[in-house]
Structure formats: structure tokens, C-alpha cells
Amino acid sequence: MTEGFFSIVNCxxxxxxxxxxxxxxxxTGYLPAAVKPALSKIVVKLTLPVLRATSLTKTTIxxxxxxxxxxxxxxxxxxxxxxxxxxxxxERIFKKSAPPILHRCMTSFGNVVFVAYPLIQSLYGDDGLxxxxxxxxxxxxxxxxxxVYSLSKLGGQTTSLTANLKRLINPSTIAFTVxxxxxxxxxxxxxxxxxxxxxxxxxxxYLSMLFIGCVLAEVDFRGxxxxxxxxALTLLKMxxxxxxxxxxFKLIPGDPMVxxxxxxxxxxxxxxxxxxxxSEYGGDTKYSAEGVFLSTxxxxxxxxxxxxxxxxx
Length: 313
Known about the structure:
mainly alpha, single chain, Na+/H+ antiporter like fold
């Protein structure tokens, strides 16, 4: 347990330092504002899909892994459902200080890719990354349908669920589907193609952290600590709900690694994607960015705590 705790602390410290580099570079103007959207597109459309593809094809499928795969997707939906309920209850308490729909979405959708992938891969290797990708897929099903449908109401641009379903067809889900089929048939990326893809995939971690740093640099963090809604959101989302799942898994024991990944994914900070969606649909980008800022900083402390609880309880 001690070794695992220091491992996650070391990983969090590494990611935090990488975020700080992006923060300083953006704040000082060393990296121009145009870099942020470019970083987002490079990660979302190139390095992340490649990382998903290479990690899945490195995995050997077994009957046990298939059962765990179904389990983690179902757990992903349940986690987001419980977070939705948590957001629904708290948005009524903080309706005067927090945009209700946005508050609920921020509670529901965590940074299950940009932060979770590098963290879980460092702790559990390619098998862990495989399960993290499945959880992220479950999250995508919620985010790009119900999530976008809800956020579009903020600016009065309500979109149909049918249109949002089309958003599920993107580079990441295509890469996931193709590589999953390859995994079933035992096909892998080898030779020079494999080397190039592994190289691009490995860029995801630091490009993601650089992007998050650039996002956080745009936030006026003075006074954030006075916003009770953001503090409550952070504690409930990143400590209370994950602890509930720790207790549930103690009553219904299964694969320890899979259960730990579900808990860690549930404990992730607010998704940076929500800032982009708020900008697109006329939502409160300032509030969403503040939530990303506070929860991401808090995760440097809460994630090691949650990881410790997984092993203690």
C-alpha cells in the first residue's frame, strides 16, 4: 500500500508540474492564446485516439476481461447517474450562486481522459488504460447526448438528441471500435507503424497537461475560495461519491484493479471539455473554468486520499 501511495503521489506531482509549465507559459505570454485550441485539437483528434488504439491492441482479451469490460461500462453509467443526482440535489441549494444546469453537468462529468489516462496508466499499466478507456466511452455516451442536450439550453440553442448521437462518431470512438475489433482477433500494430503510433500516443499526457495549464491560466482565481457551490461540488464529486463506491465494492467484491479504476475515475476533477461546450452553447464559461481550476488543484490532494481509502477501507 505504501508503495502504491507514493506512486500516485509521484504521478500527481509530475502531472501537477506539467500543468504548472502550461500555466506559466500561457500566463507570461510565452505561448500565445492560439496555442490552446490547437493543443485541444491535436490531443482530441490525433494523439488521444492513437493512445486508445495502441493501448487496446496491446491487451489480450480473455473471458474474465470481457466480463470486467461489461462491468466497468455499467459502473461508468451508474457513477455518472449518481453524480447527476448529486448535482440535481445541490443545484437547488446553490441556485442563486451557480447556473443550475451547468452545475449539474460539472458535478457529473469528470476529466476521465486528460487526467485519468496518464494517472491510471502509471498505476496499472496498459490493462488499466484499457479499462479507463471503457469508462471514458461510457462517459462519452452521457456527455455527447444528454450532456450536450442540457448545455445547449443555456444559450437557448436546444439541439435534438438525434443530432447529439452523431457526436458519438468521433476520432476517439472510431479508434476505440477499430482497436477493440483488432484486439478480439489478436491483431496488433507492429514494426515501424507500431513505433510511430506509440510515439504519438505517448505525447498525450504532456500535451494534455499543457492544455489544462493554459486553461487554468485564463481563470481569475481571486475569490474562488468564497464560492460555496464550487467547494461543495469539489468535495461531493471528488471525495464523497467515490467513498460511497468504495463502500459498495466492499459489499460486492470483484476484480480489485477494475473497482479501483472505477473509484478513481469517479474522483476525477471537472472535465475541461465543459469549458469548450459552454463557449459553444453560450453558457457561463467563467464559472465552468473556475470549477476546472479549483477541482484540478484539489485533485492533487484528493486523489492520493481516495487511493489510500481504496486500500484502507
